[in-house]
Amino acid sequence: MMKLHLYHLYVMFKYGKELFVADALSRAHHFTSDPPLTNDLLEVMTVQVLSSHHIDELRAAVQKDVTCQQLSDMIRNGWPATSKELTYSLRPFFSVRDKLAIYDDLLLHGERFILPPVLQKFYVGQLHQGRPGIAATKRKAKETM
User: Known PANTHER family for this protein (predicted)?
Assistant: First the structure.
């Protein structure tokens, strides 16, 4: 008979400026009160900000964009010692090279998508819906892309 372990997790939204302690769950390898789960079925939930259509559209744009392809190559193959060895289009990424990643053929800076120029105007327009103002739109853009 398989033993079923149930854990209840409650999530509360807090602004970044209110987070004083690092998230303990991101560093917890297992719960200390119970033995680690073995041979149990776990359900993993992922949250996507973009619909699958927009993800596919973003992936296609990344594959077509020359700068994105050069950036992908740098992430996969390694960076040169100095930014002077890079093309001008890749130099802005040199200072954040340790935060760049590729996931499912998408470019990420931390948890944010890197958008090719062909899609930037569309997504800034999406963020500006409801007319929150320039400062609020820029803040939203920095948080998400």
Answer: INTEGRASE CATALYTIC DOMAIN-CONTAINING PROTEIN, PROTEIN CBG26694
User: What's the whole-model pTM score?
Assistant: 0.58
What is the chain's length? Answer: 145
The dihedral through the CA atoms of 63, 64, 65, 70 has a sign that is positive
Query: What average pLDDT does this structure show over 24-47?
Result: 50
Q: The dihedral of CA 83, 84, 89, 92: what is its sign?
A: positive
pLDDT tens-digit readout, 74-96: 999 999 999 999 999 999 999 99
Q: What is the DSSP string of 23-84?
A: -GGGT-SS-SSSPPP-S---------SS-HHHHHHHHHHHHH-HHHHHHHHHHHH---SSGG
Q: Six-digit token pair at 118?
A: 């062909």
Tokens of 75: 């992430």
